[in-house]
Amino acid sequence: MYKEKEQVPEFEDFYVPFGGHLREDNRWVRLAAIIPWEEIEAEYKKCFSKRIGRTAKTVRLALGSLLIKEKLQLTDEETVETIRENHYLQYFLGYESYKDEKPFDPSMMVHFRKRLGPDAIAKINELIAKRYQEQVEAESEKKQNKENQKDDHDHGNRGQLIIDATCVPQDIRHPHDVTLLDEARRKTEKIIDTLYEASELTIKSRTYRKQARIKYLNFIRGRRRTKKEIRRAIRTQLQYIRRNLRTINELQNKVPSTTLSAKQRRDLIVIHEVYRQQVQMYKGKTHSISGKIVSISQPHVRPIARGKAKAAFEFGAKLSASMTEHGMIFIDRLQWEPYNEQEDLPTQIEKYKRRCGRYPESVHADKIYRTRANRAYCEARGIRLSGPPLGRPIKETLENKKIVRQLRKIQRLDEAIRQAIEGGFGYMKRKFGLGTIYEKLRETSETAIMVCVLLTNCEKILRDLFMRFLFLLGFKPHKSYLKVLVY
């Protein structure tokens, strides 16, 4: 059951028992002012009953707690303790006065991530970003009307769209086939112990767990392992797992299905798939397969080929993002399976049109997006796709010297504009939690990613408000500084 809060006090009315008052320029007070809590609550309360059930926490408390966790880079337990100690955070969460008590149990953070979900966070992000863009465009139109300037692009394409893709690493152990099989073997041994205790058997089937562990340790401690030694270690672990799975099938026929816990049943299903994949790769003499599982506890995680200097592969979700000319970032696609991001360009352009009501004047993208199909799509809609044209580069002569230099200048400017989204990715990975996702479930991980993007847009809005305040005071930065002010 969900009950609406009648009224949230202004920061002047927030009661602090030890004296004093809240500062208007505090970051949490300013952040609370740009989030449309009432509109979010109107959608959030539709998920609950009005009469039946235990009273749920308010949406401001749920969403605000997730924002605090990602912004301060805390664990769930530390988030609860920090809220208890800070009166500014309690005002941000909608409290009427400071209370020296825990707002909720730390385990509620998992329910908040599940209850809100990635789709709801994405809608909130679009709501805030769209409102900000409309405000900036309205101010720009007022300025043009004051200066009696006519905009020639009102009825055509206008604006810039920057697109790119990145991988969000998940907090898992670096996958190794032998280590993964050893973990699967140890889990099957615990399952056998659970089933044997519930059965009436007097003789326990052999698992050779001590020998299997010794062989694994002897292999993993070796400094240089040849291909022959790796295949031998994989074959040995597969044999132990095959024996354990056969024993589990025999015991399951003799005990109730409820003997195993929900986690053990889930792990058993994953282990069956891991065993099937490893057998197929062993017979095919390869280390890659479609939908390869690299973690038993997080079977949704997949290896994403990146080809970076740091690592050839990253393990986590892959997302396609777009950035508008005002610096607002949107997640257009989030998927755990690897895919080619060049397919997303038409979809991202259409989403830009839905958000802004028009096509962009130019699209700034990496080399991988500049396919013939994408070029034809942009040309049919009057959109300029960044990068050099197809064919041989134009040879510079005395006649076309100015034209060639102008084209090169445009290409350099396009590349500089495209770097803004790279800076946005780096900003989210360094300052917020996008560098490593610690949530275990698929849904909660996606929610954490969306919260990081929402926080990034809110930070951009607050920075712009601060710059406007400086402009009012007479501060005029250099033009080169304004170009890199986005991130």
Automatic annotation (TrEMBL):
It holds the Pfam family DDE_Tnp_1_2. It comes from the Bacteria. Residues 22-115 form the Transposase InsH N-terminal domain. This is Transposase, IS5 family, putative. It comes from Gracilinema caldarium (strain ATCC 51460 / DSM 7334 / H1) (Treponema caldarium). InterPro entries: Tnp_DDE_dom, Transpos_IS5-like, Transposase_InsH_N. The lineage of its organism: Bacteria, Pseudomonadati, Spirochaetota, Spirochaetia, Spirochaetales. Residues 363-456 form the Transposase DDE domain. Residues 138-157 are annotated as: Disordered. Coiled coil: none annotated.
